[in-house]
Amino acid sequence: MQVSPARPSRLYPYLAITTALLTLGLIVFGAVVRVTDSGLGCGDEWPTCHGSIIPPLDNLTAVIEWLHRAFAVLIGLFGIAVLVLAIRAYRKQNRLVLMATVTAAVLFALQSALGALVVVLELPPTAVTLHLGTAMLLLGALLVGGVAAIYQPQKHYARDQFTTLAFLAAALTFIIILTGALVRGAGASLSCTDWPLCNGALVPVGQGQGALIHWTHRVAVLGLGITLAMLVWQAWRTRPSGVVRMLAAAGFIAYLLQVGVGALYVFSMAADWTGAAHVGFAAVTWSLMISLSVVEILQTSD
């Protein structure tokens, strides 16, 4: 007996969003792994941990790294269910949902491979940056599928300056996430020991590569702040939709919290909780900007 696609199409959005939230949690937990220096808690082994499936319980860094891996496996199981539902329910309709879900499946496989590579190569900065970047793209793909399956636009209109700003804000958010990961991976987190200046200078000329990497990250953050402020202003000027206004305002608030925690990270001399929270608010900002971009795509498509 052929199963009707109606039921999985109702289930898909909730499962996709749940998987996205789990991925967001995994990203934050991954930040905990990094700030506690647990990335090599299981040594250079993968998928085993010190020669065993279960980590030694008296080794805290090994337990943290093992829990991170277990979290990833759980997301993989959810992801398989999401992919099956997408193929059954959307292969002949709403191709955006299907393409986003297939993309998420590919990104999860790539993310898992990069995770193993990071361990085997003993955490090189470029691999750590790619690992986080792929995790963010995975989160974004899941949100694209979930939002595209849920949101039904009430009216359509032409793309304008607000649409461009929404796409630009999403791109800049991704850039600051990558540059932030590079700052951490290059050991440049405290290359600028004050804020908003860098060791008393507006531009850290002659202060070394670490200070330059840190300063570049701050410039990207400033660019995102200006873009988000313009985005909120344009939302209230040109968009009557409460969903659009809410996403724009929430993104700006998450950004401000991220900047505040980033400053605390410097002032606290890289306290562990500030590092994890900084990545968490960046991931929330990214999630909101991706969701807003999808809403704009749906509202500006014919």
Architecture overview:
There is one protein chain. With 302 residues, the protein is mostly helical. It is flat. The N terminus is likely disordered.
On the 0-100 scale, what is the average pLDDT? 86
Please indicate the percent range of residues in DSSP E strands (runs of 2 or more). under 5%
How many DSSP-defined strands? 0
The shape, in one word, is flat
Derived from helix and strand composition plus strand pairing, the structural class reads mainly alpha
Calculate Rg over CA atoms. Answer: 20 Å
Fraction of helical residues: over 70%
Taken in chain order, the helices and strands follow as HHHHHHHH
Unreliable stretches? 1-8
- The end-to-end distance, rounded to whole angstroms, is 36 Å
Main beta-sheet strand count, sense and barrel state: none
Q: So how many helices?
A: 8
Write the layout of secondary structure elements.
Blueprint: H1 6-35, H2 60-90, H3 95-120, H4 125-150, H5 161-185, H6 209-238, H7 242-267, H8 272-300
Helix pairs in contact: 1-2, 1-4, 1-8, 2-3, 3-4, 4-5, 4-8, 5-6, 5-8, 6-7, 7-8
